Amino acid sequence: MSASNAALLQRDLDHLIHPLYNRTMQSGGKVWVGGEGIYLIDADGKRYYDGLSGLWCNTAGFGRRELIDAATHQLNQMAYASGYCGSTNPPAIELAEKLAAITYPNINKFFFTSGGGESSDSNFKMARYYWKKMGKPGKYKVISRQWGYHGVTLAAMSATGIKPYWPAFEPRVEGFIHIPSPYPYRYEAPAGVSQGIAAANELEKAILAEGPDSVAMFLAEPVHGAGGVIPPQDDYFPRIREICNQYDVLLVSDEVITGFGRTGKMFGMENWGVKPDMMQFAKAITSGYFPLGGIGISDEIAEVLDKADDLWMHAYTYSAHPVGCAIGCAMIDVITKEDFPGQAAVKGERLLNGLTGSLADHPYVGDVRGKGLMCAIEIVKDKATKEEFDVSEKIGPQVLAETTKRGLFSRVRNDVYCIAPPIVSSEAEIDDMVSILADSVRAVLG
Question: pTM above 0.90?
Answer without folding.
Answer: yes
